Structures
1.
Amino acid sequence: MIDFNIAPYVGTEETYIRQAIEKRKLCGDGTFTKKCSDWMKEQFRVNQVFLTTSCTHALEMAAILADIQKGDEVIMPSYTFVSTADAFVQRGAKIVFVDIRPDTMNINENLIEAAITERTRAIVPVHYAGVGCDMDSINALAKKYNLKVVEDAAQGFDAYYKGIPLGTIGDFGCLSFHETKNLTMGEGGALMFQDTAYQEKAEIIREKGTNRSKFFRGQIDKYTWVGYGSSYLPSDMNAAYLWAQLESCKTIQDDRMNTWNYYYKHLKPLADSGKVELPTIPDYAQHNAHMFYLKLKDLETRSWFISYLSEKGIMAVFHYIPLHISPAGKKFGRFHGEDVYTTRESERLVRLPLYYGISEKNLAYVVKTIYEFFELKH
């Protein structure tokens, strides 16, 4: 079986985890946590990076820092993972879903303004497949209506919009280091922002509502409970695993890009003949080869396609079921305007195996099997 995903591994992870154990500093904000944060600050030219236990928790922190209150409205695409909405629902917000663009699967920036009401407090663009949303348009709307922008860049690590790293363009950006992502720490994420005015509050939220960070910097002689917070700190052992991968970031990313380009090159004849659609990368976007997907004719064809590949030992999978048609989506949100593309495109999309180290032999087999499917179908 050719797996859909295998968590990346570069070979130095155990060494660094052992070092973390030997230091007897296993909780958060240890040596490796700081190494990871400093690396991202420099690489992504961002003032603040807080490593978290998940991208979900990074989004929750962003929702708190954005001061989302009960009854507020938050605009986002329906085609996303549940965490994008959950983080704001927990604050009592109403989610307002808008349709996506069929080319990038990102939120349609041209539909956002019509969804804004006097209750709207934030826009949450989701950078699907590491392809950036139109952030100029989104930031312009946010400025016009005094809204916060929280980038869900779970899939956007080391991807760029007009040369600017995803997750550093809005007020807050949230990364994921789940094992399905380009780089991983098993479970983990990061909250990023440029405005240092949020630093102290972010530290308090992340440290269970205490000013413990100030204590460890020697700024106060004891720490205490000063506000709302939770436990968002990852173990330094998790950070040690991530540090090994950050050191090898270029190697991992180049390998994934080679795989993405292989698929694109060899499957383009199918797209040219109208049998499939391939991913679209706008001129403004530098993607990170987070995933490679195809769009088939319809749901029935996609189901047949996935089943056929499975029979041949290849695991290919669909992605999100739109949130607005889910039980919780109906309870906590509403869809503004017409669902022209969200459901239709989600039913056609299928993701192919893509992970660090996948062999060209396996890639060739996947491509060969896809061509066989269309020969059988037609």
2.
Amino acid sequence: MKELVEVIAKALVDHPDEVVVTQKEEGKSIVVELHVDPSDMGKVIGKQGRIAKAIRSVVKAASLGESKRVDVEIV
């Protein structure tokens, strides 16, 4: 999941070098944290959070085969 979020985020931002994705397992869920340059935050979130919601939907669809729930947090 980490690689998927990283590829999507790097395609959206102006500073792809600043994209950092970390993955933590917490019990029955996996938390993927996305860190971007502050100037690119709006591009990753989108108007009314539409792009962030789309990223979460893609990750959720990709994780259906796994037994753990995957959450994406934009930090």
